Amino acid sequence: MPVQPHNAMVLAAGLGLRMRPLTETQPKPLVRVAGRPLLDHVLDRLAEAGVTEAVVNVHYLADQIIAHTATRTAPRVMISDERDQVLGTGGGVVKALPLLGHQPFFHVNSDTMWIEGVRHNLSRLADAFDPELMDIMLLMAPTATSIGYSGLGDYAMLADGTLRKRREHQVVPFVYAGAAIISPAIFDGAPKGEFSLTKMFDKANEQDRLFGLRLEGVWMHVGTPAAVAEAEEALMESAA
Prior knowledge:
Order of helices and strands: EEEHEHEHEEHEEEEHEEH
Largest sheet: 7 strands, mixed
Strand order of the largest sheet: 5-4-1-6-11-8-12
Shape: globular
Strand content: 25-35%
Structural class: alpha/beta
Helix content: 25-40%
């Protein structure tokens, strides 16, 4: 049966080094694209998908994010404070698990954006996620049509959505679009302290419980000042 996550985790604790000089005085999630902070673009998508509570982790210039989200009600924002420690993308989720509950939750990077297709992609992700078969389902963007991305891809995807991780020097057609549904059970036995969330992706992959869903629309990785301009141009063109 499909799931309907009402909780989400938004990663907002990074230093934003590649986004300098824009991040010298503000955290990356508050960098504006088309007049709105990246973080608000993400939270708006989550609200549209039925999320009522979002955990946002903070580290760099945390006070600005805390103040910015304080009055947000759709979704309501809970802060996972990492100012005293660096936990990485995986350790940050482990710290936030008590706030996320026992059901599958959305997991979204604060620098990911996309232009929707016919249906909202997070709703499509929820409809496709089967907790009997999957521990993690990633939203996957075709590398050929993505904006702000020039890498070799992350995964190949089989017809049933099963993912196969890119081997060294291999080129694959899909890149992780920074949005997923994750079952908290995958974190049983997870490392303590700082670690990368890709360890959990690899764990699910080894157990054939890592799946992907092709993004409908256009994905934009907003990781540099130049990518901000590219994203704004694409948004303007899509609205024309």
